[in-house]
Design goal:
This protein has 17 helices and 13 strands. Strands 6-5-7-9-8 form a five-stranded parallel beta sheet, with helices on both faces. Strands 2-1-3-4 form a four-stranded parallel beta sheet, sandwiched between helices. Strands 11-10-12-13 form a four-stranded parallel beta sheet, sandwiched between helices. The structure holds iron/sulfur cluster.
């Protein structure tokens, strides 16, 4: 039976029935199950999550729940892969919708990154540490692990760049151009020494001289949500409310970071808003569902999204109560649907890159 056909009986259920049946399935599975909810998930998923967080926190937390056989990851594909890399041997990671991908992760295809690395070697540019953002496929994490590189998150990117420069002269960073550029600029690296590798063009669209002069080579990839924010939005919000403080995620373009009051990871954004006093006024440049939830949780503060456009992660949104219920009721029947299984050789390389990240303070 196809996934579409299997989902058919769930499609016309009303919200209350879906919620009741999800709760009942969770009760039936008890401690054999944990449900992880990424911050960008919609509220009718988050209400069923045993824990919420960013991708790395969730992957580690799931692995630590040793009584749980099933880790149902309400997030996107690369996150479920990370959970599968870190999980205990008796655990299975399940993604309720296999089409929940990440447009940024998809922008760095494994073959293209291998080809880029080979091109650099061919040009004699070999003092290069590959660093991949957590938001990438397991195959790219393994690529870094096998070549002396590491993974980074949006919280520790600067620390990982500092570590990488202590190993070799240059960094090759993928798949997010903006996190790479924002971090490099924050470290004082001139823009002229940050080059963008465009995989659609011969030799990344760069000359050998440009590549030799570069200190950081960033992949031409981006988040479809965070690149919707512009410097114009910052100015509009300030014009509307002179007391507003602008808080953005480092996946936004540098022109936005340059005009913001603070920049940081999803966890940093949550902590900053939570710790601010009542009456604080924030315009936040990150995914709609998270900003909306923060506004609901803290009515004593003004919390709005930076752009008035609908900045929603469409692939995160693919995780619906219907496919969550289908995954859970299948488990109750003893059937595992949508398991995520990263090949063992890939896992080994990816774990090396993740372990290097953990050793950097
Ligand atoms: S918010 Fe951006 S980086 Fe995160 S899953 Fe969606 S497209 Fe990918």
């Amino acid at each position: 039976m196809t996934t579409r056909a299997a989902l058919e009986p769930y499609l016309d259920l009303d919200d209350a029935t879906l919620a009741d049946r999800i709760s009942a399935a969770k009760r039936a599975l008890g401690k054999r199950l944990v449900v992880l909810g990424h911050h960008y998930q919609r509220d009718d998923i988050i209400r069923h999550a045993d824990v919420t967080g960013d991708s790395y926190k969730l992957a580690r937390w799931g692995a630590e729940q040793t009584e749980a056989e099933f880790i149902v990851f309400c997030g996107v594909h690369f996150m479920a892969e990370s959970a599968d890399i870190l999980r205990a041997p008796h655990q299975t990671v399940i993604l309720p919708d296999m089409n929940a991908g990440c447009s940024m992760a998809d922008m760095a295809q494994t073959d293209d990154v291998h080809e880029a690395g080979a091109t650099l070697e061919r040009l004699g540019i070999d003092s290069v540490t590959p660093i991949t953002y957590m938001n990438s496929t397991a195959a790219l994490k393994a690529y870094c692990g096998e070549r002396g590189g590491a993974v980074c998150t949006s919280s520790n990117c600067r620390a990982i760049f500092t570590w990488a420069f202590a190993q070799r002269e240059k960094i090759f960073f993928f798949p997010d151009e903006h996190l790479g550029r924002n971090t490099a600029i924050d470290m004082g690296i001139p823009e002229a020494e940050i080059m963008v590798w465009d995989p659609a063009r011969e030799q990344g669209g760069l000359t050998a001289e440009e590549l030799r002069a570069a200190r950081v080579i960033v992949w031409k990839g981006c988040c479809s949500v965070h690149t919707k924010f512009t410097a114009k939005h910052v100015r509009e919000r300030r014009a509307e409310d002179p007391d507003v403080r602008i808080l953005v995620h480092p996946e936004v373009p540098h022109e936005v970071v340059a005009e913001a009051d603070a920049v940081g990871s999803t966890e940093f954004i949550i902590r900053t808003v939570r710790e601010s006093p009542a009456g604080s006024r924030w315009a936040v440049g990150t995914e709609y569902h998270l900003v909306n939830r923060l506004a609901q949780q803290m009515p004593e503060k003004s919390i709005v999204i930076l752009s008035k456009d609908f900045c929603l992660c469409a692939t995160m949104y693919r995780i619906s109560p219907q496919n969550l219920l289908w995954a859970l009721e299948s488990l109750v029947r003893g059937e595992i649907v949508n398991p995520i299984r990263v090949p063992e050789a890939t896992k080994q390389g990816a774990r090396i890159a993740l372990d290097r990240m953990l050793r950097v303070r």
